[in-house]
């Protein structure tokens, strides 16, 4: 799968569905509920933001992709592969992981990847105390940045944690932990904004298959292929994502041929489309998250036994 954005746009609802009106050539037009709220990977994750990150950012590790009988590529959760990390080693005690970066990787701005990009991305995330900081402190229990993150050489980085963790390897698959092009980022830093939050909110600086060339919040976002992408130039040279908050409007645009893909349609709309000639409805499983939170200070949830009972009631299969 060379064109990550073509496949991911279909799979992006993470357990949702998308309908295709025609076979795109080099440009794909997508209608979805909303544009990303921010292009900064430290922005709290939403469905729209996750879709952006999977199409623009590149991670150190990923799950291997496999093609099913329906022709759609899925993540194989049993196999991890290197992305920006060509290879890696986990220490026998599960207290450190060493990443050896892939040579020849170039960002959308033409800058080669090296350990400084990784370390700067880590340092930025740590200091902004948002997504990256949460994963490191809450999942890996890191307390000291300097003790945890080490540049071994120009193409090698090591992460050390205080206690063994079974998530030390799999955590780096998360699309919230993309690596930034630090050379591009440093061109846009100011004393008032030392980590480039203002610039990255509306621009991209990554090593992924696509870069953002236009971002109009509430209207549209345009992705264009990174012609230097290390896995080959994506087949889709441009993807135009248009915000259409109403499901009925997305359906009408699809039926009129104004868009190629419509996301997040209702079950009734999908059922109707599935019976129409020239329309393909793709369904994929994913990790769409529904949250039910309890007020632990309010009865009966202030009783730990009640919370434990509710935990046992949640189906796990």
From TrEMBL:
Biological process according to GO: peptide transport
Occurrences of domain Solute-binding protein family (ranges): 80-316
InterPro entries: SBP_5, SBP_5_dom
Cellular component annotations (GO), alphabetically ordered: cell envelope
GO molecular function: peptide transmembrane transporter activity
Entry coiled-coil feature ranges: none
Annotated localization: Periplasm
Gene3D superfamilies per record: Dipeptide-binding Protein, Domain 1, Dipeptide-binding Protein, Domain 3, Periplasmic binding protein-like II
Keywords on record: Signal, Transport
Similarity comment text for this entry: Belongs to the bacterial solute-binding protein 5 family.
PANTHER family, A to Z: PERIPLASMIC BINDING COMPONENT OF ABC TRANSPORTER (PTHR30290), PERIPLASMIC OLIGOPEPTIDE-BINDING PROTEIN-RELATED (PTHR30290:SF10)
Protein name, entry field: Solute-binding protein family 5 domain-containing protein
High-level lineage: Bacteria, Pseudomonadati, Pseudomonadota, Alphaproteobacteria, Rhodobacterales
């Amino acid at each position: 799968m060379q064109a990550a954005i073509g496949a991911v746009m279909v799979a992006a609802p993470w357990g949702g569905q998308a309908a295709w009106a025609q076979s795109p050539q080099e440009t794909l037009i997508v209608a979805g509920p909303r544009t990303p709220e921010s292009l900064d990977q430290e922005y709290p994750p939403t469905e729209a933001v996750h879709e952006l990150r999977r199409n623009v950012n590149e991670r150190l590790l990923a799950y291997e992709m496999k093609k099913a009988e329906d022709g759609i590529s899925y993540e194989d959760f049993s196999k991890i592969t290197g992305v920006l990390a060509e290879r890696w080693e986990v220490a026998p005690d599960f207290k450190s992981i060493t990443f050896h970066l892939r040579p020849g990787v170039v960002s959308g701005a033409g800058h080669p990847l090296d350990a400084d990009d990784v370390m700067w991305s880590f340092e930025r995330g740590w200091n902004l105390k948002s997504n990256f900081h949460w994963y490191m402190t809450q999942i890996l229990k890191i307390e000291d940045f300097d003790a945890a993150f080490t540049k071994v050489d120009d193409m090698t980085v090591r992460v050390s944690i205080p206690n063994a963790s079974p998530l030390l390897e799999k955590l780096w698959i998360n699309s919230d932990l993309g690596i930034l092009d630090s050379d591009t980022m440093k061109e846009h830093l100011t004393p008032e904004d030392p980590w480039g939050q203002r610039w990255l909110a509306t621009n991209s600086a990554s090593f992924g298959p696509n870069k953002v060339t236009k971002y109009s919040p509430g209207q549209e976002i345009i992705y264009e292929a990174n012609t230097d992408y290390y896995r080959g130039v994506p087949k889709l040279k441009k993807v135009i994502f248009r915000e259409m908050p109403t499901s009925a409007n997305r359906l009408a645009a699809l039926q009129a041929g104004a868009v190629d893909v419509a996301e997040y349609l209702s079950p009734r709309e999908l059922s109707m489309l599935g019976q129409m000639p020239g329309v393909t409805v793709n369904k994929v499983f994913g990790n769409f998250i529904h949250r039910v939170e309890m007020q632990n200070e309010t009865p009966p949830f202030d009783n730990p036994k009640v919370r434990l009972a509710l935990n046992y009631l949640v189906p796990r299969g």
